[in-house]
Amino acid sequence: MIYDDASWHSGGDFPVDLPPEAGGTHIGLFLAWMLLNGQGGERHAGEFGGLTQRAQTPGEWFMAACDGKLMSEDLSVAGNAFATAYYLYDEDGHEDGDPSYLPDYAKSFADAPNAYSVPDTWASYDRLAPLLAARFAMWQGRIRHEGQDNGL
Questions:
Q1: What's this model's pTM, rounded to 2 decimal places?
Q2: How far is CA 48 from CA 30, 35, 53, 71, 106, in A?
Q3: Domain residue spans in the chain?
């Protein structure tokens, strides 16, 4: 399953002054957080040193390692469940007030001219990481409370 693809964002209303890779910054930041917090799939087992060492930015690493696509294979079982609930937010399938990644991302970078103008930097990652940690913890608490743990 493909959750997101940078190429889906770099057409249409995409800002003409930005490189196409800017369409993957939001995806790279999310995947970097997931990998660095133990939610990576076997596909990336031990193969994200560029992120661990901060030798590459999240977007650079994502574009090179994942060809600009966030796929289910990139994430653990729990990571996929979280991505389905939070990254692939479905308004019809959620209660009012449930958090969703893209609105959270936009609010976190409200000072940027648009969502694609967020810099692909570790400073952007550091700004977003506490929110992702809180959302992941909230999601974990919810599934435990609802008795849906299933080993996640």
A1: 0.90
A2: 14, 8, 9, 16, 26
A3: 2-145
